[in-house]
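Exercise (ungraded).
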Amino acid sequence: MTESTTGVAAPLTKAPAADPPPPRGRSTSPLAALTGSGVGRNLGLVVALLILCGVGAATAGERFADLDNALTILRLAAAVGVVSIGMTFVITGGGIDLSVGAILALSSVWCTTVATQTMANDVHWSTMVIAAIAVGAGCGLVNGLLIAYGGVVPFIATLAMLASARGLAEILSNRRTQIVEVPGFDAFFGAEVLGIEVPVLLFVLVAIAGWVLLNRTTFGRRTVAVGGNPEAARLAGINVKRHTLMLYVLLGVCCGIAALMLIARTSTGSSTHGMLYELDAIAAVVIGGTLLAGGRGTIVGTVLGVLIFTTLTNVFTLNNRSISEQALLKGAIIVVAVLLQQRFARRSDSS
Amino acid sequence: MTDDDRGTVPPETLLELRGIVKQFPGVRALDGVDLLVRAGEVHCLLGQNGAGKSTLIKTVAGVNQPDEGSLHWLGEEVRFPTPLAAIKAGIATIYQELDFVADLTVAENIFLGHERSSGGFLQRARANREATALLTRLGHGDIAPTRRMGALSPAAQQIVSMARALSHETRVLVLDEPSAVLDQEEVRNLFRVVRGLVAEGVGVVYISHRLEEIREIGDRITVLKDGRTVATGLAVADTPTSELIRLMTGRSIEYVFPERTVAPPDDDRRPVLEVEGLAQAGVFEDVSFTVGAGEIVGLTGLVGAGRSEILEAVYGARRPTRGEVRVDGRRLRRGSVDRAVRAGMGLCPEERKSQGLLLDEAVSRNITVSSMGRFARAGFLDEARERRAAEELTTSLDVRPTGVTRAVRTLSGGNQQKVVLARWLMRECRVLLLDEPTRGVDVGARAEIYRLVRDLADAGVAVVVVSSEIEEVLGLSDRVLVVREGRVVHSAPAADLDESQVLDLVMEGRAA
Amino acid sequence: MRTTTATLRGRLAVAATAGLLVVGLAACTGNDTSSGNDNLRGGTDGAAEGSNDEEGDTVVIGFSAPAADHGWMASITESAQVVADSYGDVELRIAEGTNEVNLQISQVETFINDGVDAIVLLPFDGAALTPIALEAMEAGIPVINVDREFNDPNAARVTILGDNYGMGVSAGQYICSELEGQSDAVVAEIAGIDSLPLTQDRSEGFAEALAECGLEVSNRVAADFTVEGGERAASNLLQAAPEIDAIWNHDDDQGVGVLAAIENAGRDEFFLVGGAGSANAMRSIQAGDGVLRATVVYPSTQAADAIRVARLLAQDKAMADLVEVEVPRQIQLFAPVVTADNVELYLDTAFES
């Protein structure tokens, strides 16, 4: 099969080079054609989302098909969405991060301690923002250093961070919920632009920035290269270690932003924030079409993945259905998505 | 099947393919292929990349099903719906990329899938005993069946793969480019093993790019071109090389190296690349050489002599324990590839697919990966400009098929190599390091790559070529360094050396 | 390529089969035991003319609570459902339990969007749910806060609480009376999740009640409300204290593990007082064959009461037995001690752990 698509490879013969058809275009079914290309994959997700919306509208009627409900879905999606976008970069770059939920918790606790809040009230509320993002970036830096320069496997390094960061969050907060009383902070994150809250807008902004970063910048290009073939990337002159480090820092920053969103939403910082976000984020990224092995990532897919899961939750809530059923369905969605993805990977291997 | 007719005269026909057609969507990979393999012969399969060799052996091995044509095994028409069916019938295929489990032992690998067991319990002693018997049959009783597979040399791994094939009742053994990972001594050994099998009546299908090997080991030749058999059953002894090349390429070419433009290194000017006292404990020692602008220096030696390691250390991909590397007089930081690249170095690595290319990425992106900064403003890429620049280069290098958005995976070996070269052309590098630049590259593209390297040198690039093909080193380089056991044992202008001298140096470390 | 498709199809089939199997198994392993909470029924049937139980305008009540990963918590939701079912005029919308505040907030948002008549909310974290509860109140939807208090009094119309401090006091007083005259008695305590305010309240009440009779807590360990945690904590405690006279265990769910540890250690020189009041703890007290001699109730019917209150609020009714025309702002439930003497009285409203 290998040779069949490579075409005539004898330039000396100067045969008129008729382009063989693009290898990925060949497909055995329309479904495969849809899921084969990048656009097709996203189209598949859009169809899935539309089906879900159809189910929602059919079962909950106007209660589902309603602007307020759409905003409810987006508000729920915002924090995990921002984390998922950061996760897309790490996974595309060939890594994984299990510690996002814990980093989020630590970040939310650190920036709501009495000390930080006092400072925020005395100086400026943005002190909290800086604190949250700095803590996230710091945790990401530790992850990145361990993985890129310490040679620790990402799974293990971030597993350690998962335990430690939440532990530190519990120590800092004494396992109490820390209530935020910083008027400027509330005012900013509570504000609405055109009827849309700041956290939702932040999610949109992060998604756009993530798309541009992944698809239009050297950083994104390098991320794909590092994830696709780290050795080739290294020999091509890319500083793979530094880049890997930066990917984890980027994800840490995303966790910091998500922490701020959760703080604004709950008016609290707590060591219980962000429980199991790592699994939600990884699930969203994977069903979005980013290769878990690295080398290919899609922000649009990730956003759709997040929306599919949150819409699912919303439809189940509207219908008084149990979370256990929802979890069962969620598992099924992940399995189907990954089966499709494997098939896609196999095909590109054999072409 | 009977066992007592092995080696009878006239040779029995084991496998016959008639008019095999294999269609992939959009491509007719095999378009009427005939092949006849007899017991006790080495049947060579020749053809350029893309001629259909891989598809053909996959069809024989039961991986692919032919769309038309018939397969005859011991005189009867058969189908092999699965690879297992082919193995059970007695056809064993050893692919270029050996498939084994690195963490299992030699014996475990040999009997993988048909473990020696009793009542579900493994009989390890028996497996080890039988493994040793098989390895001894291959002349390699020295490979301990309890060794971990991953710890073996590529040559030994290949022997184990053959033992695995023989652990089934194998009548036809298909070897896909078996010599690609071997040095000359190992190739000689491989030939010994193949001859032994042939003497036992096994039919061997041997695929190789190296015409000289085919001349040495082959009995008959079948040539494929564009999915068709253009000649079948040619006797090796009666067919001149030029005829084979004509059959493969459809025109006659010679194995030509580009004319050396005599540009003697200017002694007054500082050399572009200076390597001084470079050493890595236990790998290579005290390597010093310089390369001037426009000069091509060849590094040759046995596989494992330290050639690639030296190149990697020069490039910063491997951290030397001593010594230094200077480009244009500026000293490079040890073990830092990105510094080396910034200083103007470029490497075309030996393992093109695993070290050189982002296989699923577009051709253009593979070309620009090392000079992205040039197409970016504040980190934002101008993709249109990037693609145009890549197009210009691929056109001038005649990369086929055209189209820079195509995934590199879909290109043939030679064209992939051109893409890697284009990457460093794009970067306008000062020093180009080439590790086995023509491995897996067919005859036609070879000449083109030689031409390209010479052109680069003429444009003032300092070039270092590592190759195990002495002919290539002598033909391409201005100066040759011979490496043996981690040391540079000889350095001389290529014009002052001939093949046998270099061979002696490589093997013995001294000129005859 | 054909083989790939076939494999994929095969795999999908396998996945689908596996899925069906799971569902099937779930159907086969249904654990329904008829609920013993029949007496929670509001008795609309034959309600006296003019009484509060008389059917009124239909009210929609949204209900959200943490995940039912614990017998007491499961009972909260169950009893709320039972009460709601007993009224023809109550439509209960249960958002499934979650321990994720972000999701719980989203559930309340959905209730607000739906314009329900009242919301009964047992927050995973009182403080974290305060902003959204305030929002609901501002939207004119009365919120009934159950068990875990908001940090803003305006966030709830009515707050229904258990009495954690009182539980400690009840347990302490009971142990005092049982150990009367033994001033050197060894009293141990197995707490729940130590960092929760409710645990701290319980321990405080317990220590103060013991001090009244000159006793103190000699050994104190903390578990985490799970059977496994209870077993671990109790094993450690028994190892640390070779001779004990009385133990108070905060929670009957973790008490299953505590009893297992005691069984394993073969100890019976002391008596055990439970907490929360699970049905199996009460049955054990009734049987009188073990070390468990009493338990202090922390009512799991809080949410059920909250549903009733929510209905009254939505229908503009007052609490019949009070003179006051409005429903009170706060209702704190009593924490009685259940012993063999009075267990009959409580067994019916106890929860199954």
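Further reading is listed at the end of the chapter. For now, observe: Chain B has two domains: 14-248, 273-508. Chain B touches chain A through 68 residues (CB under 8 Å).
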